[in-house]
Amino acid sequence: MNILISGGSGFLGSAFSKEIQKRYQTADKELHITWLTRDSSQEHPNDIEMMTYDQLSKTDSTFDVIFNLAGAGIADSRWSDERKEQLLASRIKPTESILEFIARTSIKPKLLVSGSAIGWYGTQGDKPLTESSSFETDFSHQLCEQWEQLALTATDYGVPVVIVRTGVVIHPEGGMVGKLLTPFKMGVGGQLGNGQQIMSWISREDWVGAALFIIEQHLAGYTQSQATQDNLLKTATENDTPAFVYNLTSPNPVNNHTFTKTLGTWLHRPTFFTLPNFLLKLMFGEMSTLLIDGQKVLPQALQDAGYEFQQPTLQQALAEQKS
């Protein structure tokens, strides 16, 4: 299999690349990975090829799967107007380049998997949300919606599309846990707001496992007739090319209070501190909604398709992490 990955060197893309290499080597299958990058001199493993966006616009290479993960971290800095534009551009421009490649190449990819986030659903408290749920309009929704709708235009060229809406990814090497390790180890970690806001999370191992499961399933011929009403995006295309959506979250979301206590127990550190809502709003502005307002997003389509979680509880996810 030839696979092209935008964002391949990132927190998720690098873990995905390592795992698919390991599985294909074990199964004695041929695999060729190319990372799509803006900087061809970027450090990378010797067995992974690098391709710039300029090279993509000219290449006659073919790919079985394109995995579109590029995008600046939504929680990396305060949401100024300039930052919002950067967040959108970092997702739209790489996706446009991929779509331009798909449009001109004579041998189309068998599948486009494009990233998104559970922010698509907007702030909805503790209401259970599956792939068929509606949304509340806020910045997170608008950002995800524009990214998803652009990716879905690949169906116009006969390329099936899978949208993966990712929750909070748990692993010490990065993501939320990576950022919290230092304050928690210093004994100043604690609850955010009233602690009742729901956090929909997934371990990085299960995120990678689910992504591979989805790709293998669809390459094996997963069809529109097999899809549940939850994950079939019927409005994505006017032709017969299917499009699907999956929530990449654990089936066991937790509130912030439970997350805080579980992380403190894992690190053997106290969790006495509380950051009140007004202080979070003062510190982070509009972006504080990611910390204060919860989402209870469930992986209905993934479970219906038969994926079995390896780390379904937060305690398991933290206990089994490999730092």
TrEMBL record:
Q: Which SUPFAM superfamilies match?
A: NAD(P)-binding Rossmann-fold domains (SSF51735)
Superkingdom as given in the UniProt entry: Bacteria
Entry-linked InterPro entries: DUF1731 (IPR013549), Epimerase_deHydtase (IPR001509), NAD(P)-bd_dom_sf (IPR036291), SDR39U1 (IPR010099)
Q: Which residues form the DUF1731 domain?
A: 276-320
Position of the signal peptide: none
Locate the NAD-dependent epimerase/dehydratase domain: which residues? 3-219
Q: Which family does it belong to?
A: Belongs to the NAD(P)-dependent epimerase/dehydratase family. SDR39U1 subfamily.
NCBIfam families, per database record = yfcH (TIGR01777)
Cross-referenced PANTHER family, in alphabetical order?
EPIMERASE FAMILY PROTEIN SDR39U1, SUGAR NUCLEOTIDE EPIMERASE RELATED
Protein name listed in UniProt: TIGR01777 family protein
Q: Which organism is it from?
A: Psychrobacter fozii
